[in-house]
Every structure is written in structure tokens, then in C-alpha cells.
Amino acid sequence: MMASLYRIRALVRKEFLQIVRDPNTLALALLIPVVELFLLGYAATNDVRNVPIAVWDQDKGPAARALLDAYRAADYFRVAYEVHAESQLQALIDAGHVRAALVIPPDYTNQIRTYGQAQVAFIIDGSDPTVATRSLSAAQLIGQHHATQIQTRRLQRAGIPTGEPPLEVRARVWFNPDLKDTYFMIPGLIGLILYALTPMLTAAAIVRERERGTIEQLIVTPLRPWELVVGKVVPYIVIAFVDTLEGLLIGVLWFKIPIRSPLSTILLLSGLFLLSGLGIGLWASAQAKNQQEATLLVYMSFLPAIFLSGYIFPLQAMPKFLQVVSYFIPLRYFLVIIRALLIKGVPVSALRTEIAALAFFGVALLALAAVRFRKRLD
Questions:
Q1: Which DSSP letter does residue 341 get?
Q2: Residue 267 CB-density burial (10 A; 0-12 exposed, 13-18 middle, 19+ buried)
Q3: Claim to verify: residue 186 and residue 259 sit in the same structural domain
Q4: Cα-Cα-Cα-Cα dihedral of 316, 322, 326, 329, to 10°?
Q5: Is residue 175 part of a domain?
Q6: Domain annotation covers residue 269
Q7: What is the C-alpha separation between 186 and 190, in angstroms, rounded?
Q8: The domain spanning residue 120 has which CATH number?
Q9: 171 in a domain, yes or no?
């Protein structure tokens, strides 16, 4: 046993020296996750704020100005242009300078004063469904709130007591009161980076030995096959944990993501998730003849995980057969775990199903990769 530990330690030391002497690998392992966290942390969001809109105010009356003030007061929209013809409005939308337009009819103020109601048009560019959906909801909400204010003032001027509404819904949002998308995206990014980086580095490290012809030198040493595998992957496990800590540090200090579970629990379950990545990396290294082929094989498993893990699209909205496929993707379970630990602070007992699934996939993938890798060495 002591001899095995000595041989593994020597190989781990060799691998760390090789990583340090290869600045490209070191940058890939430590700097790219940071860059991805910052870029995707800001870019991968569904928050809609300051959407540029055009206004065609054909009324110019006090009621129209009050309506515009209501839209300006909300941070959903920014009045970027004031137009005086439908052709100008259409040109701005066609060119993509605005995403929506508010059209106020000529008799808006008169309609409000005489009948207490009027209609306005809110035109939305539907080429981007996400922005269009959020803009539609925000426009309707602002309009309903403004209409309630108009109705209340009319009743007060008529001397009619407004009283309390018959129903009041008091919503309470747990865990993420401001509904920030970063609370959802950043934990998911940590899992996504680990799922992509760990197998890629592991596969490249072993295939690189084969390309250089040094794998044969390692085989003829007293190293057993399992000692060779352990010695090669341990440095990348350490790097993966460093990347995890980097992601947590950036998430907390920069994006203000809460950590509501013990750090030891988060790292322990992250390590369990890394087993799946190591298994994929070892399998790819056993299949591939060069680093380019290994990278391609890793991406073949990575790309479906992006779309079928729940990172971007909700699983409940997918067709049934895709939901079934998602059960075979380890990232699906880790995303549930990392988001629950960071945002909700749930006990580990509430995540038994996900933890068991990660353990199963980790052991199964490592066993499959070990068998294939041993055959390749033999």
C-alpha cells in the first residue's frame, strides 16, 4: 500500500510540474472559468430593463402626459424616440433601434374625461420572444396600474368612497425576493464549467502522453493501471475544486449570490459530481487517438447537457421523450443540488434522490471508462 502511495505521489508531482510548465493548460483551467462566469453572469439573463421604445403621442394632452410619466417611472422601458408618423415608427422597429412603441390616439384626453376610458396601442417587436413576452407583461401591468389610479381619482372627485378592493393578493417570494436571474444562472454556471472542464482536461492529459509516446514509458514502470489513472486525474481534481471555489467567491462577492449551506457540504457534493466528469474524460481518452478527437468526444456529451439539464430551458416545458433523456445527464441532478444548497439552504436529506443519482452515474461512468482504458493499455 505504501509503495502504491509513493508511486502515485511521484506521478501526481510529475503531472503538476507538467501543468505548471504548460501556461496554456493552466490558463484554460483557472482563467477561463472566471471569464465565463463574468460574461455569462451578465449575458445569460432574462431580466428585461430599460427596453428602448418609441412614442407616437397624437394627443399631447395632460392625460397623455400622465400616461407617459407612468411608463417613464417604471424601469422596464426607456423612451428613446418620439415620432410623428407611422412610417417613422415602423422604420425604427425594422432597424432594431426600438423594441416596442406606444401609440396614443388624438382624442385620448377627451375620451378619458368624457367616458373615463380610452384605448392606446402598444406595438411589440416579436422577433425576440423573451424580450417581447416580458415587455408585453410589463406594458399591461403599467397600464392596469395607471387605469386603477385614474378610476380612483374619478370616484374621489365624484365624492364616492373608493373603499378597499374585495380581494387583495399579497405575494411573498422566498429565497429570491427580487427575482434576480443571477441567483439562478450563477450556480448553474458553476456546474456547467465543472462538467465541461474536468473531462476535457482529464482526456487531454492522458491523450497527450500517448501523442508524445510517453504513455509506453509509464506502462513499463512498476505503476499499475489504476495507479496510473489516479495519478493522472488527481491534479485535475484539485484544479476542479479550485475552480469551484473561484466560482463561489465571484458569485458571492461580485454577484451577491447567497450561500445558505455549509461550504464543506457544497464541496463534498461537488466532488461527487466530479466523478461523472472524470469518467467521461477517461472514456474519451481511451477512445481518442489525439487531443482534437478527445475534445470532440467530450463536447458530444457536453452539448446535450446544456439544453437538457435545466440550465437554460425548464425541463417541465420539454416534450416527454426529452424529459426522459434528461434523466441520463448527471448535470441535471447537480444543478438541482447546487441551486438548492446555495439559494435555499435545504438539508442534505431533501436531496437524497439527486445525490443517489450522482453517485450511481459517477461510479458507472468511472467503471465503464476504467474497463475501456485498461483494454487500451493492454
A1: I
A2: middle
A3: yes
A4: -150
A5: no
A6: yes
A7: 6
A8: 3.40.1710.10
A9: no
Residue 162 in domain? no
DSSP 235: H
Q: Measure Cα distances from 33 to 94, 218, 240 in Å.
A: 37, 31, 10
Q: What pLDDT, in 10s, does the model give residues 280-318?
A: 988 888 787 787 888 888 888 888 888 889 888 788 778
Residue 272 vs residues 90, 112, 128, 354: alpha-carbon distances, Å:
55, 64, 38, 11
3-class DSSP state of 51:
strand
Taking only the tens place, the pLDDT of each residue in 231-263 is 777 888 888 898 899 999 999 999 889 999 999
Overall number of domains in the chain:
2
Q: Are 99 and 53 in contact (CB under 8 A)?
A: yes
Pinpoint the alpha helices (H) of 44-128. Answer: 62-73, 86-95, 108-115
- What does the block give as the cell for 370? 476504467
Which DSSP state fits 340?
I
Q: Tell me the C-alpha to C-alpha distance, in Å, between residue 48 and each of 91, 103, 183.
A: 23, 21, 15
- Pairing of the two strands 77-82 and 100-104: unpaired
Amino acid, res. 129: P
Domain that holds residue 92: 51-157
CA dihedral of 69, 70, 73, 79, whole degrees rounded to 10:
-60
User: Which among 281, 262, 96 is positioned nearest to 202, based on CA atoms?
Assistant: 281
Note if the pTM is more than 0.85: no
C-alpha cell at 322: 426529452
